[in-house]
């Protein structure tokens, strides 16, 4: 099936967006590309700061949309990965096993 750039007989093509909207779209695309380029060059601490700064923006969206946006961003690998080890003060020894933090020791511990 070949794509025909001409509209079917008797139909008019959809109107193109106004020039102001085209400029706004171009400016937004350039800003997004610049932001992603900056994010890619940041150190881990700055990435965490930038990721946490998006929280108020995501809260403007409904729950389903923000969830889909978060899954999409995670698939792209845009979330920072914590690479620093847990401090020794968080280490917990329980039942002969050592956990790097208390969360590992208590997950599921209070279910009834």
Tell me briefly what this model is.
The protein is mainly alpha-helical and 112 residues long. It is built from five helices and two strands. Strands 1-2 form a two-stranded antiparallel ribbon.
What does this structure look like?
It is a single chain. This protein is mainly alpha-helical and 112 residues long. It has one domain. It has helices at 19-41, 44-53, 55-58, 63-76, 102-106, and strands spanning 92-94, 97-99. Strands 1-2 form a two-stranded antiparallel sheet. Strand 1 (92-94) and strand 2 form a beta hairpin.
Number of helices: 5
Helix and strand element order: HHHHEEH
Measured distance between first and last alpha carbons:
61 Å
Beta-strand share of residues: 5-15%
Q: What's the quaternary structure here?
A: single chain
Largest sheet: 2 strands, antiparallel
Overall domain count: 1
Rg value: 24 Å
Low-confidence stretches: none
Query: What is the averaged pLDDT score?
Result: 77
Helix content: 40-55%
**How would you classify the helix and strand content by structural class?**
mainly alpha
Shape: elongated
Number of strands: 2
Order of strands side by side in the largest beta sheet?
A: 1-2
Structural topology:
Elements: H1 19-41, H2 44-53, H3 55-58, H4 63-76, E1 92-94, E2 97-99, H5 102-106
Antiparallel strand pairs: 1-2
């Amino acid at each position: 099936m070949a794509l025909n750039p001409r509209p079917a007989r008797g139909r008019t093509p959809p109107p193109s967006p106004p020039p102001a909207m085209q400029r706004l779209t171009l400016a937004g695309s350039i800003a997004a590309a610049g932001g992603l380029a900056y994010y890619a060059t940041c150190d881990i601490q700055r990435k965490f700061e930038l990721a946490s700064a998006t929280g108020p923006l995501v809260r403007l969206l409904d729950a389903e949309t923000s969830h889909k946006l978060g899954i999409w961003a995670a698939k792209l690998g845009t979330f920072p990965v914590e690479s620093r080890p847990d401090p020794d003060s968080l280490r917990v020894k329980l039942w002969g096993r050592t956990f790097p933090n208390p969360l590992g020791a208590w997950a599921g511990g209070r279910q009834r």
